[in-house]
Amino acid sequence: MVPVYKGKGLLGGGLEFLKNPVLFTLQKEAVLGTFYRVKAPFRRIYVTTDLDIVKHILQTHHRKYKKSPAYYQLKLALGNGLVTSEGDYWFRQRRLAQPAFYKSAMVDIFDTMVEVVEKFCANLENQLPLQTDISPIMMKVTSDIVLRALFSVENEADSERMYDQIMDTQEYIIDRTTHPYLIPFYHLNGRHASFKKDKRDFDRM
Asked: Model pTM?
């Protein structure tokens, strides 16, 4: 029998889970164990930290499971690529992409990573106060590596612009995923139009 977390109100525990999935999982594991269901409207949410279950779903029997509805939102930004596709189409794409991850092809990317990180570390003491939130800073470092390694973006202004577009797009997709009932309003208040403009600009660059 799978334990069920019911939460409160009409939305059950679903809203709690969506607000902060990591914190929610850590807190509920102590009470409900490593595998449980969260009561939510319109969908069943199962949560697990059991590695055997993760392996069962993602590796041993992956063909029996579909990706979550969140990936349909991701397709708006990423298209039908490796992250969002499934089945035989995903397998064909994976084979096409595989050469890019051979050791010989990764050398230049490693060099770029080292260069960006060394530059960041050299300026670390001057740019950070004694207490700071490191998360957005590390996101920027990661973005600099990706933009240079994958898109060959060297211009600082272009890098900043693309970084801002990536962050805005990420926030928009997360909001669509966690608050699907607000999607019609995003089309009315201009947020979806702004997302489409950022995507066109990003694709053009």
From this structure: 0.71
Closest CA to 28 of 14, 41, 11, 42: 14
Cα-based angle 157, 162, 164 (whole degrees, multiple of 5): 95
CA distance 139 to 162: 13
Instruction: Report the distance separating Cα 171 and Cα 137, nearest Å.
Output: 16
Residue 76's closest CA among 158, 164, 198?
198
Rounded to whole angstroms, what are the CA distances from 53 to 82, 116, 125, 174, 194? 23, 38, 43, 26, 40
Average pLDDT of every residue of the chain: 86
Element spanning 148, H or E: helix 134-151
Query: Strand pairing partners for 5?
Result: 38
CA-to-CA dists, residue 190 to 22, 80, 170, 196, 200, angstroms: 31, 25, 16, 10, 15
pLDDT tens for 120-175 read 888 776 666 666 777 778 888 888 888 888 777 777 787 788 888 888 998 999 89
**pLDDT tops 70 at residue 23:** yes
Cα–Cα distance between 205 and 194 in angstroms, integer?
17
